[in-house]
Specification:
190 residues; alpha/beta; Barwin-like endoglucanases; 2 domains; 9-stranded mixed beta sheet; 6-stranded mixed beta barrel; globular; phosphate acetyltransferase activity; acyltransferase; Phosphate propanoyltransferase; transferase
Amino acid sequence: MSKTVPVGVSARHIHLTQEHIEALFGPGYQLTEMKPLSQPGQFAANETVAVIGTKGQFDKVRILGPARPATQLEISRTDSFAIGVKAPVRESGNIAGTPGITIKGPAGEVTVDEGVIVAARHIHFHTSDAEKWGIKDKDMLKVRLGGERGLVLENVIARVSDNYALDMHIDTDEANAAGAKTGDTAEIID
């Protein structure tokens, strides 16, 4: 049985706490939805911010909503070199001991002491998909991306929940290396 999954390429983006949303956009501010994402209830917001590192900054970094319990900036390794932040590869939400960043919005600025990561490649599985294929939460998978520059990615983390929809997330560096784009498919091979 072929274990085919859709691919989503994740460009740099930021998740913000409600407190930081209000500090950057004004008291009581609520994010507005530009478009839904592959995961139920998640969306790309209309709002963007600037993020400022020691060597440079990125303007117009898309905010993903809804508000989160912790502010987290997800960038590629190439991005980390460009702004001078030594971001470690981490699973989303695992930000303890990571570098911080300054975030600038239209109504203010916030500096966080931690929260900058290169997101570890992963596949979101709905519980039923994972059970069908014998995959458990936190399993490390090997996945083949096809195409002209096809490659095999190792250490792809399985994330299993009733709240997830089947989707593989890789960053722009990984996608560029493979010539992959959002909407392509990949195959779990181990």
